[in-house]
Structure formats: structure tokens, C-alpha cells
């Protein structure tokens, strides 16, 4: 079991897999932006297609987070960035059908901050200089 967890962690944290996740987040963000156009919102068929695509992205992000949880166990909650991912993905599932709160999905784009080291360092630096 320990070897499975280790292999899972090596796979999910592999730089190529993480790059793939970054690409998915970018594509998902673009799709969410496109889905706000009036011609898509007013076309039930197009809107349904975009909703299905969005659900596929959410499933992929959930699988990635599940693999992280399998690897780290409850230590996952000690990592602030993974907790951010957990909250965003969990809320995306919870509020999936609530129209007004669907805008919350855009927070998935902020997951880029958790994936790109320079962005992560920038956020940490900004919090470091803020008065308390």
C-alpha cells in the first residue's frame, strides 16, 4: 500500500502531469469566459455543451485532487495551496446547479497561483508586506 501511495504521488506531482493540469486550468478558464457570451447563454444546446465540458474539467480536477489525497492522506489539509484547491473544487461541486453562484467557478482559474511557482511566490510576498 505504501508503494502505491508513493507511486501515486510521484505520478501526480510529476512536472509533466502538473504542466498538463496547468494547461487544463487555462483551457477551462477560457471556456468559462467564452460561456458568458450572450449567444451561448441564449442557445440552450450550446449552453448545455459548455456545461458538459465544464463538468469534464471538474471531474479531471477532482481526480487530480483525489490522487493528491491518496498520496498525502490527511496531511493534505496542512498544505494551504492544496486546501485552496480542495475548497474551490468542493464548492464547484456543491454550487454546480445554483445559477447565481456559478460565477464561483472562476476561482478555479486562481488555482494557477497554486501551480506556478513564480505566481505562488508573488502571492506569498504580497501577504508578507501587508500590514497586520
What does this structure look like?
This protein is mainly alpha-helical and 132 residues long. It has one domain: Voltage-gated potassium channels. Chain C (Four Helix Bundle (Hemerythrin (Met), subunit A), Up-down Bundle), CATH 1.20.120. It is 73% helix and 0% strand. It has 7 helices and no strands. Helix 1 packs across helix 4, helix 2 runs antiparallel to helix 4 and helix 4 runs antiparallel to helix 5.
Layout of secondary structure:
Layout: H1 2-12, H2 15-34, H3 38-41, H4 44-72, H5 80-94, H6 111-115, H7 117-129
Helix pairs in contact: 1-4, 2-4, 4-5
Q: Into how many domains do the coordinates divide?
A: 1
Radius of gyration in whole Å, from Cα? 16 Å
| CATH topology-level fold name | Four Helix Bundle (Hemerythrin (Met), subunit A)
Q: Which range best describes the helical content: under 10%, 10-25%, 25-40%, 40-55%, 55-70% or over 70%?
A: over 70%
DSSP strand (E) fraction? under 5%
CATH first level: which class? Mainly Alpha
The H-level CATH homologous superfamily, spelled out, is Voltage-gated potassium channels. Chain C
Low-confidence stretches: none
- The number of distinct helices, counting runs of at least 4 residues, comes to 7
